Amino acid sequence: MKASQVSVYPWQQAIWRHLAGYIEQQRIPQAILLTGAPGLGKRHLAEVYVGALLCHTPSPEGFACGSCAACKLYQANTHPDYLTIEPEESGKTIGIDKIRQLIIQLALKPQYEAYRLVIFQPADALNTASANAFLKCLEEPSERTCFILISDQPSKLPATIRSRCQKIHCERPNDVVARDWLARQGIKDDAEQLLAMAQGSPLLARQYAEHHFIALRREYFEAWLQIALGKGDLLSVAEQWQKQETVDLSVLLAWLASWLTDIVKLAQGIDVAGLENPDFKKPLQALAERLELKRLYQYYDAVLKSRSQLATQINKQLLTEGLLIDWSQLNNH
Length: 333
Hints:
Layout: H1 13-24, E1 31-36, H2 42-54, H3 69-75, E2 82-85, H4 96-106, E3 116-120, H5 128-139, E4 145-151, H6 159-162, E5 166-170, H7 175-184, H8 191-197, H9 202-210, H10 213-228, H11 234-243, H12 249-267, H13 281-290, H14 293-309, H15 316-331
């Protein structure tokens, strides 16, 4: 972490005061579980906390000085008392071999007088065997060691692990704070729509702006609409959606679920202010007027089920094709 980055995001100030209180009182929890939606900067918050605990001369606010020997090692990612436990590849589990290696390292004392810090991300990627092995680390704590578990889905962690952690939940900022931060990043015109797409998470909104998600979302919607009208080549659309690198399939399915939700709302006469996609109101209204609600609910359930299957070994091409075939049949029934 660079010295210029030794601070937290505006919406993390209250949580930081809580974490800094641990340091000031010298009551460092053995394990912290950081939870909250994606795009809120949980990893950044954890790294600022790690830096503060490793630092020899922290600031009055509790932040790392960024210039002492420990900070230099941390910035270079070579501090011997800082460890990270992550899957080998995104979407994979954290295997037991990583925990066995960790246990060997924990058998030794920290090399410096401060704490040894271990970040797990995503902690919910621990499989059954690795979670059981890690539980022993929590039950038999090592000297001056603190674990920081980061998870978007803490319910996937065993209750035995969750119960041994201090839980800190990161809330989404209010719209004013989020828009103000985005404005300082040079994102003003589309801030409201980007935040809506990111479900209020500022970092995701910034990422969406950088990758032109507003235009991409419209392209995907138009392709989906063409299939509803019986004009699109659903197999080529499925291939394009599955192979698209900029928009993750999980994000695309979340958009799809929101379009379906709005169709249901419009069918029930809910005001446009309650829509997730007000810019698509006209075509969504047309779909709401001709689709059968019962079958629409069934299709919505299929989309949610597909989202939950993305973390498995399911064939994503077949999954995408199946959803588009069902969508075509739903519209041409």
